[in-house]
């Protein structure tokens, strides 16, 4: 495997942040600031750098390399697979009018791949319109829960205005890109960790609809949430990124962390990043910088233990809520990962609106929030 990385900002042109080497038909991952990806020249610029490349765009709440975490830039990571192959498929959630459009879109997207020799699928999904829980369930349904799928919902800093993604075209709304990796010697491992601690009483979800939470213990959910936040409730919905919910449904063995993306004052409800079922038990969660950094180190260590070979590429997907907590110390969680996987490993990734991966020791993917999700790849 060969890799090359470049970076640009609003005021600078493309600069190599790695050794410049020639690549043949590379997979080109382009992660960055949504405003910069909306530049009408962005696709032609990247195509000019990698004429035979297969180019995948995704907007972020910050792009990640071993050298930088930056939310005012665009980063290219170009990868030449020397022993493996890849296939890219796309879908657009805005094109499906069914009531279960996120599920159907996910299921149909994965069904496009030939299953013979398929080792892993990495997802770069828009994060504005998608129901990430249903997307994951649809993808699992297409594979009978037997295919490793990891990935991200794209971000838009902390603005939550819109996200964009694409494959071999100008980035656009609603797009979901799936990268399928094939190869006998391909070694892919993953792990996730959060570092968030529950606090306060456990409540029962007594009224919800998909990803909208209306009532806890038969009381308006938003009123209860504001009560616990106190003065910080004046900063909603932004403050909600710092106080997500731990959700344990009657159907699931493990708890999921759910970010609150927005609030509806009129309906006294909260809009979450993924589904929340009636009957689920929820608690508020909080964290600190050290807990988040330690969780990233743990995720990297766990992913490394599952490997037969040294990783050549690490794709990191962390959550916008973690970035807000880390603030000026945001690079520390990436430094911890680098310390574990080694400086010969190319690191790329993004801060997202949701992380897609299974729980440890499972194969069916889930939508997570507030986690560090690490995918390690080698040939």
TrEMBL record:
Alphabetically, the GO molecular function entries are: kinase activity
UniProt keywords, alphabetically: Kinase, Transferase
Q: Which residues form the FIST domain?
A: 25-220
Q: What are the FIST C-domain domain coordinates in residue numbering?
A: 221-359
Query: By its UniProt entry, which InterPro entries does this protein fall under?
Result: FIST_C, FIST_domain_N
One Pfam family name is: FIST_C
Name assigned to this protein: Histidine kinase
Give the organism, scientific name.
Tenacibaculum aiptasiae
């Amino acid at each position: 495997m060969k890799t090359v990385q470049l970076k640009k900002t609003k005021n600078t042109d493309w600069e190599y942040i790695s050794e410049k080497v020639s690549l043949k038909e590379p997979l080109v991952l382009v992660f960055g600031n949504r405003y910069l990806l909306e530049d009408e020249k962005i696709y032609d610029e990247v195509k000019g750098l990698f004429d035979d490349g297969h180019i995948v765009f995704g907007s972020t709440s910050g792009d990640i390399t071993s050298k930088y975490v930056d939310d005012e830039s665009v980063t290219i990571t170009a990868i030449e697979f020397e022993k493996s192959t890849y296939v890219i498929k796309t879908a657009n959630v805005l094109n499906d009018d069914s009531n279960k459009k996120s599920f159907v879109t996910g299921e149909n997207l994965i069904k496009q791949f030939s299953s013979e020799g398929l080792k892993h699928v990495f997802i770069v999904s828009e994060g504005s319109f998608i129901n990430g829980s249903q997307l994951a369930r649809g993808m699992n349904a297409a594979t009978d829960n037997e295919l490793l799928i990891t990935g991200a919902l794209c971000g838009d800093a902390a603005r939550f205005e819109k996200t964009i993604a694409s494959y071999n075209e100008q980035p656009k709304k609603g797009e979901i890109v799936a990268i399928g990796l094939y190869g006998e010697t391909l070694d892919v491992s993953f792990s996730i960790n959060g570092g968030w601690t529950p606090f306060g009483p456990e409540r029962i979800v007594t009224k919800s609809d998909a990803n909208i939470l209306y009532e806890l213990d038969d009381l308006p959910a938003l009123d209860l949430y504001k009560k616990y936040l106190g003065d910080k409730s004046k900063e909603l919905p932004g403050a909600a990124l710092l106080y997500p919910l731990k959700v344990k449904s009657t159907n699931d063995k493990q708890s999921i962390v759910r970010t609150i993306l927005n609030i509806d004052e009129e309906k006294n409800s909260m809009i979450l990043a993924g589904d929340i079922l009636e009957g689920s038990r929820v608690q508020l969660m909080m964290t600190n910088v050290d807990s988040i950094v330690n969780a990233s180190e743990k995720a990297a260590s766990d992913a490394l233990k599952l490997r037969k070979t040294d990783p050549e590429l690490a794709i990191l997907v962390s959550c916008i809520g973690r970035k807000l907590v880390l603030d000026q110390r945001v690079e520390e969680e990436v430094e911890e990962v680098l310390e574990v996987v080694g400086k010969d490993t190319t690191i790329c990734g993004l801060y997202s609106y949701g992380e897609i991966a299974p729980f440890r020791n499972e194969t069916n993917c889930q939508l997570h929030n507030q986690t560090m999700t690490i995918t390690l790849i080698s040939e």
